[in-house]
Amino acid sequence: xxxxxxxxxxxxxxxxxxxxxxxxxxxxxxxxxxxxxxxxxxxxxxxxxxxxxxxxxxxxxxxxxxxxxxxxxxxxxxxxxxxxxxxxxxxxxxxxxxxxxxxxxxxxxxxxxxxxxxxxxxxxxxxxxxxxxxxxxxxxxxxxxxxxxxxxxxxxxxxxxxxxxxxxxxxxxxxxxxxxxxxxxxxxxxxxxxxxxxxxxxxxxxxxxxxxxxxxxxxxxxxxxxxxxxxxxxxxxxxxxxxxxxxxxxxxxxxxxxxxxxxxxxxxxxxxxxxxxxxxxxxxxxxxxxxxxxxxxx
Length: 298
Description:
By secondary structure, this protein is an alpha+beta fold. It is about 30% helix and about 30% strand. It starts with 5 loop residues before the first strand and ends with a strand.
């Protein structure tokens, strides 16, 4: 494990904070004095995040059902939020680790903004993003395929009450039980978005397909929270009907999460086919997709 946090002030004004697996890019807009203080607050809050979470990692890797049965309460603020987030999801299996990246981003965002008057702040933790917008600001980003082509753009305004974006899938940094290339989720905070993206990506699946290669998670990473559950390591080319079936499973689960108020929208992609769930307020669309290049299953 990297011994000390690494702090880099980037040429474009952003702040890069790295410590082991935690890799944050923080961008801020506002008065220079407020930004300076907000960055100091972010750095101070970041210094002990990895060390504190590492001390309780064995418990964070336990299934929520086991922690619930013990009435377990974490003293660490990030861990408490991780447990609170995963407690809300309808699923047979989830651990607090499903929300770790998003909850770290949420925590650093809150610490950065406390007592400060800023226009906009974003904390990007390896693609899981927490952000703050004042009433005049908006946040815009793109969803790209593996070639870097933008399949869709996301534009969020203050009044949308969305403050988190997260992406998961079998092509990402972590392991997935499903076969989605990627699932990008919008939610009220990054912790919710993180856990939801993980679970929706798990739901996009063809359980009996010989075109999907799987291995026990603990054979790939002995200490992983997934134990011996089968994770996806390779997906061969699928026919259109197979893609449609797998996407429909993800769409069904995402729709449940949207009805429960856990997510505000999702973009699911599998082998260059995609669909969008939710993502609209009363007046406009939040996710704009490019259907000239890619096929959309509605």
